Each structure stands twice: as structure tokens, then as C-alpha cells.
Backbone:
């Protein structure tokens, strides 16, 4: 089973700042099968990125994903007030499907 | 538009079972795989299982395999999740989610609103 480790646990930033969230896999992921989700309090998660770097439909281009080996990154170029939330990575290339523990982006 | 509408909150006693529903609309229900994901209070997301479009094949996370059953009714575009032998550790919000075609149905592009299940004596 692939384990995903997200860091940092919490990121305290101001609107307009850039954010870099990391997701490290315990082993190589086949075909970059990693997704990122955003979850706000009391809401269901929302798909942001799949295949490590492809934005889902309707996702603003300030969100971008990248990968380097077993390390994956979600970058938010300029934080908007609505971007303060918890972000999860997910591996979908095997079974069980697995999520990272989440990274919270909070207002500084 | 795509909608997944889940059944209402449940309160159960330890040892009981719960069956949740998720009614889909706005898309061709019978070509999409469906998943269930849960989230304990203040915790992260946990995948429980997947059911194929025809409902004759399921796959479960090993943690739940002995206790969970996913079914679906194509006539009503509804998927169901039944979880048995509940303990307090099953207190969580349970989400249904649609598998995205661009990820071979294994990432989730639409989610239900969630159903809170509380297990308490």
C-alpha cells in the first residue's frame, strides 16, 4: 500500500502570498496517478488537479501541480480569500485508493 | 447539472448497522463507477470502496471488507452503502463520490453533501 505524507501540516499565509504544498509518496507512482483536492469547513472536497499536473474543469490557473520522482507539489500562485482551506493529495493508481493526511492553509 | 444527494444524518448504537443512500442526477448514472469515502471528526479522508456501473462488482478497502456492502439501483440512480457492527470509531461523515472518467474512475470529480453518522450508546 502506498503511503502519502503531506507537509507542512499547517501553512499560515496572507492573501496574495504564494503557497507550496508537498505530498511525498512511499514508492514510485505509476503514470503520475495523483490528484489534489480542496476542502473547506463543512463542505465536501473538490477536485483540483489530476494526473499530477492537469487542472480539473473550472479550476483557476493560479493552482498548479508538479512532480519530481516520488514528490508532488501543489502550488497556489496568489492566495485568494477563498483558497484558505485544507488540501489533500490522493493516489489513484492502485488499491486501496489512498489519501495524504492533509495540509491546512490558514490566514496569517 | 451533476448532483449527488445523500440521505440524512443517522444516530446508531454500537453493534447496529447503517445503510446510507446517494441519489444521482444530471448525468448518465449507468456508466460511472461510484465510491464511498468517510471522514472522522477533525480527521482526513478515508476511502471505503467502489462499485462498478452495473453493480455486480465491488472492491473494498481491507479495513472495511468484512463489514461494508455497496449496492446500486439503476432504476432510481441510487447507490447505497451499508456498514455493519458499528463502533464509536465509525462516527464520521460519509460521502459518496463519482469516479472521474479522465482518471479511469479512480479520482472523484463530484461528491455528495455528506451524511453524518454518529455511533453512541
Residues:
Amino acid at each position: 500500500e502506498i503511503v502519502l505524507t503531506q507537509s507542512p501540516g499547517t501553512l499560515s499565509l496572507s492573501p496574495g502570498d504564494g503557497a507550496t504544498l508537498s505530498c511525498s509518496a512511499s514508492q514510485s507512482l505509476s503514470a503520475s496517478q495523483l490528484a489534489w483536492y480542496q476542502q473547506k469547513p463543512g463542505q465536501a472536497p473538490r477536485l483540483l488537479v489530476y494526473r499530477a499536473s492537469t487542472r480539473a474543469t473550472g479550476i483557476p490557473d493560479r493552482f498548479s501541480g508538479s512532480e519530481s520522482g516520488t514528490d508532488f507539489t501543489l502550488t497556489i500562485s496568489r492566495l485568494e480569500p477563498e483558497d484558505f482551506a485544507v488540501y489533500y493529495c490522493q493516489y489513484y493508481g492502485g488499491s486501496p485508493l489512498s489519501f495524504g493526511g492533509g495540509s491546512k492553509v490558514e490566514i496569517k | 447539472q451533476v448532483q449527488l444527494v445523500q440521505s440524512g444524518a443517522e444516530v446508531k448504537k454500537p453493534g447496529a448497522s447503517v445503510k446510507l443512500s446517494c441519489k444521482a442526477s444530471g448525468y448518465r448514472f449507468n456508466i460511472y463507477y461510484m465510491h464511498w469515502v468517510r471522514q472522522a471528526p477533525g480527521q482526513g479522508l478515508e476511502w471505503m470502496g467502489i462499485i462498478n456501473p452495473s453493480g455486480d462488482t465491488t472492491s473494498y478497502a481491507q479495513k472495511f471488507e468484512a463489514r461494508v456492502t455497496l449496492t446500486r439501483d439503476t432504476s432510481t440512480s441510487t447507490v447505497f452503502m451499508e456498514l455493519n457492527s458499528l463502533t464509536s470509531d465509525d462516527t464520521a461523515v460519509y460521502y459518496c463520490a463519482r469516479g472521474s472518467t479522465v482518471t479511469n474512475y479512480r479520482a472523484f470529480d463530484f461528491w455528495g453533501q455528506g451524511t453524518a453518522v454518529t455511533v453512541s450508546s
User: Anything to note?
Assistant: The mean pLDDT of chain A is 96. DSSP finds no helices and eleven strands in chain A.
